[in-house]
Every structure is written in C-alpha cells, then in structure tokens.
Amino acid sequence: MLTVPQVLALLGVPQSTFYRWRQVGKGPRVIKLPNGAVRIRRSEFDRWLSDLEECT
Fold first, then answer.
1. Which domain holds residue 39?
2. 40 near 7, Cβ under 8 Å?
3. 3-state SS of 1-53?
4. From the first residue on, what is the mean pLDDT of each consecutive set of 10 residues in the chain (56 residues)?
5. How many domains does the chain have?
6. Contacts of 41 (CB under 8 A, 6+ apart)
7. Which strands form 2-3's sheet, in the order they lie side by side?
8. In what residue span(s) does the Helix-turn-helix domain sit (predicted)?
9. 48 FRET partner, CA 20 to 30 A, in 1, 30, 34, 42?
10. Residue 54 confidence (pLDDT)
11. Distance CA 45, CA 28 (A)
C-alpha cells in the first residue's frame, strides 16, 4: 500500500492536483482507513497508470 506522499513523489505532482483528480473521479481508487488516512494499493496505482497510457 502506498501513502499519498509516496504517490505524489512517483507522479511528481502537487498534493492539490492529486486531490483534485480524486474529486473529479480521475485519480486512482483509494482506501480510506478508519483513522482517516488514505492508502492506494500498488496494483491499483499501476492499473490506473496503465489506463492513462496512449496506444500509438
């Protein structure tokens, strides 16, 4: 499971961009833990990135 800071580092985007993507349904699916923390499964992150790839 990846934390938001880890995902931000991998993508190289600001936190505000990540949360805006989530708000409009364009970001990877997340798991919200009981303490309010957000985690992203590595497999979900990889799937989301793969879906963004353009076939040429």
1. 2-52
2. yes
3. CEEHHHHHHHHCCCHHHHHHHHHCCCCCCCEECCCCCEEECHHHHHHHHHHHC
4. 96 95 94 95 95 76
5. 1
6. 1, 2, 29, 31
7. 2-3, 38-40, 31-32
8. 1-50
9. 34
10. 76
11. 6
Q: What pLDDT is attached to residue 1?
A: 95
Number of other CB atoms surrounding residue 48 within 10 Å: 17
Nearest to 29 by CA among 53, 11, 48: 48
Least Cα distance to 6 among 33, 35, 36, 41 occurs for: 41
CB neighbours (10 Å) of residue 7? 21
DSSP structural state of residue 56: -
Compute the half-sphere exposure of residue 44: CA atoms within 13 Å on the CB side of its CA.
13
Query: Considering the entire predicted model, what is its pTM?
Result: 0.82
